[in-house]
Amino acid sequence: MEKHITTPITKEVTKTLKSGDYVYISGVIYTARDAAHKKMSETLAEGKELPLDIKNQMIYYMGPSPAREGRPIGSAGPTTASRMDKYAPALLDLGLGAMIGKGKRTKAVQDAIVRNDAVYFAAVGGAGALLSKCIKKAEVIAYDDLGTEAIRRLEVEDFPVIVVIDCEGNNLYETAIKEYAEV
Predict the structure, then answer these.
(1) Coil, strand, or helix at residue 180?
(2) Given the DSSP bridges, would you call strands 58-60 and 22-31 parallel, antiparallel or unpaired?
(3) Beta strand extents in the chain (DSSP E only)
(4) Which of 10, 134, 164, 180 makes the best surface tag, with the fewest CB within 10 Å?
(5) Residue 183 clears pLDDT 60, i.e. is over it
(6) DSSP 40-74
(7) How far is CA 3 from CA 7, 13, 20, 26, in A?
(8) Which residues of 13-34 are buried (b: 16+ CB within 10 A; e: fewer)?
């Protein structure tokens, strides 16, 4: 099924998304990769506030290439999500509504998705130049010292993703393999 959603993403919205749905996101999403997740984890361990309120937000696991002249961002393809798996459950428990990346997630992340009525989307790897066309504005909001891994606030329009793990724990990577094996 094809759906269009606007951020922030609430539990009411995540509960309507099913594994395998094609979704087009408009609004604000944030980027963060390994180094930014590590800094956020350290910030939480110190009892301090994160540089953004992640409740009902989406984090896109992406580090862009430099922007071409006249563009807000360069190539913007997804990073392998499993690299953030040791940090994701804590962020989900704080209210993170969705993550965008590529690849499988650990059982701990899948459990946190279900526990928090969240969702995991996949963006198409290798299509970073095309995905960047959906990004209308980009600005670094935290950890500028991390370069491409800094946290960015992106304004997106019809950003295409696929629901991989829905809030009920249905996992497209697992169901697709079963369907393929039955053919």
Answers:
(1) helix
(2) parallel
(3) 2-6, 22-31, 58-60, 98-101, 119-122, 135-142, 151-165
(4) 180
(5) no
(6) HHHHHHTTPPPSS--BT-EEE---PPPPPTT-S-S
(7) 13, 10, 11, 11
(8) bbeebebebebbbbbebbbbbb
31-52 mean pLDDT: 96
Q: Mean pLDDT over residues 109-130, rounded?
A: 93
State the Cα–Cα distance between residues 68 and 133, nearest whole angstrom: 12
Token reading at 176: 């697709």
pTM: 0.93
Whether the upstream peptide bond of residue 78 has omega within 30° of 0, thus cis, is: no
Instruction: Using alpha carbons, list the distances in angstroms from residue 118 to 37, 61, 65, 136, 152.
Output: 18, 16, 29, 25, 21
As a whole number of angstroms, the distance between CA 79 and CA 97 comes to: 18
Whether the Cβ atoms of residue 172 and residue 163 lie closer than 8 Å to each other? yes
Q: How many angstroms separate the CA atoms of 37 and 107, rounded?
A: 19
Residues in the chain: 183
Tell me the CB-side half-sphere exposure of residue 35, using CA atoms within 13 A: 12
CA 138 to chain centroid, in Å, comes to: 15
